[in-house]
């Protein structure tokens, strides 16, 4: 068991951590279609994808993928981080989400819409 001062220190570090906000795509490696999205916390997104793969349940992922998950399997999908958003410590969560939405839109313009789910 961790002693009280160490536990308090770990909690403080956790509360002060700045999650990595990212624009990503979840790619079907079989047909090259993908979901383009953004997330305020990369670690949370990675955990969601890992959970879906470990349990073979696509429910944790975007619903548009369900048919292809049934056809190709969950292992056919890979997570690709396109860009990490540099956030300022004073940025509010709303500002981060707004910046992510703008950044995602810029990435959306780079891809062929026919490839998107």
Write the layout of secondary structure elements.
Layout: H1 4-16, E1 21-28, E2 34-39, H2 42-55, H3 66-72, E3 77-85, H4 93-108
Antiparallel strand pairs: 1-2, 1-3
Quick structural overview:
The chain is an alpha+beta fold. The protein has helices spanning 4-16, 42-55, 66-72, 93-108, and strands at 21-28, 34-39, 77-85.
Describe this structure in words.
The N and C termini lie far apart (47 Å). It is built from 4 helices and 3 strands; from the N terminus they run H-E-E-H-H-E-H. The mean pLDDT is 92. The longest helix is centred in the C-terminal third of the chain and has 16 residues, at 93-108. The chain has a single domain, classed as GIY-YIG endonuclease, CATH 3.40.1440.10. The chain is α+β, with helices and mostly antiparallel strands and 117 residues long. A 3-stranded antiparallel β-sheet has the order 2-1-3, with helices on both faces. It is flat, with a radius of gyration of 17 Å.
Features:
single chain; 117 residues; alpha+beta; GIY-YIG endonuclease; 3-stranded antiparallel sheet; 4 helices; flat
Strands of the widest sheet, in order across it, are 2-1-3
Q: Supply the number of structural domains.
A: 1
- Please state roughly what percent of the residues sit in beta strands, choosing from under 5%, 5-15%, 15-25%, 25-35%, 35-45% or over 45%: 15-25%
Mean pLDDT across all amino acids: 92
